[in-house]
Amino acid sequence: MSVRFTITCDRMSPHGGCPSQIVIDARTIDDAYIAAEAQGWQINEVPDHCPCCVNGPETTP
Ligand SMILES: [Zn+2]
């Protein structure tokens, strides 16, 4: 039995927040975080960042 967790990217920019999110079915939020990290998400350090924001520059056009 699992629960559906939605993890959203917390990066903010002058144009608004990053719309990226990931939905993971897991038993616990910890398991969801592990699965998200396996896909490149940075979860351990708040705020959460999607793979794009982790690797990309913090600048905006
Ligand atoms: Zn992001």
Tell me about this structure:
It is a single chain. With 61 residues, the chain is an alpha+beta fold. It has one domain. The chain has two helices and four strands. The chain has a two-stranded antiparallel sheet. Strands 2-3 form a two-stranded antiparallel sheet. The longest helix is centred in the middle third of the chain and has 10 residues. It is elongated and about 40 Å long. The site of zinc ion has 8 residues, from helix 2. This is Cys-tRNA synthase (O-phospho-L-seryl-tRNA:Cys-tRNA synthase).
Pattern of helices and strands:
EEEEHH
**Category from helices, strands and their pairing:** alpha+beta
Mean pLDDT: 85
Overall tally of structural domains:
1
Strand order of the largest sheet: 1-4
Q: What helical percentage do the residues reach? A: 10-25%
Ligands bound to this protein structure: zinc ion
Helices and strands in order, then pairings?
Elements: E1 3-8, E2 12-13, E3 16-17, E4 21-26, H1 29-38, H2 51-55
Antiparallel strand pairs: 1-4, 2-3
The structure holds zinc ion.
The site of zinc ion (ZN) has 8 residues, from α2.
List keywords for this structure.
binds zinc ion, 2 helices, two-stranded antiparallel ribbon, 61 residues, elongated
Sum this structure up briefly.
With 61 residues, the chain is α+β, with helices and mostly antiparallel strands. It has one domain (3-55). The protein has helices spanning 29-38, 51-55, and strands at 3-8, 12-13, 16-17, 21-26.
